[in-house]
Design brief:
Helix content: 10-25%
Number of domains: 1
Largest sheet: 6 strands, antiparallel
Order of helices and strands: EEHEEEEH
Strand order of the largest sheet: 2-1-3-4-5-6
Radius of gyration: 13 Å
Number of helices: 2
Number of strands: 6
Shape: globular
């Protein structure tokens, strides 16, 4: 499990059934049959720190081209949003300082 990164990082975002979020270098290591009983989802993507009032980060799912807002308590409503101006401003700001 990662501590909260201070810069963008490619990783997995794992959400358990209680809505608790974890960043990790891999998917949860549980039997496939147990996954649905323990987790809402495990998604590989890019974590972008935001540091705005009530928002600590965006998590970008590259496969589905959508993102999740993570609040200051490292919690989310788990409703994926379509890419929008808010997301692109943060991504562009980070990409200008940390090009891939």
């Amino acid at each position: 499990m990662y501590s909260i990164p201070k810069q963008p990082v490619k990783c997995f975002l794992n959400a358990d059934l209680n809505g608790n979020l974890q960043l990790d270098s891999k998917e949860p290591q549980v039997d496939e049959s147990d996954f649905d009983h323990l987790y809402m989802f495990s998604v590989q993507g890019i974590f972008y720190p935001v540091n705005k009032p009530n928002v600590s980060a965006y998590f970008y799912d590259e496969n589905h081209k959508e993102y999740l807002v993570i609040n200051k308590e490292f919690f989310s409503d788990c409703i994926w949003k379509p890419l929008d101006e808010k997301f692109f401003k943060v991504k562009q700001a980070w990409d200008s300082i940390t090009p891939r």
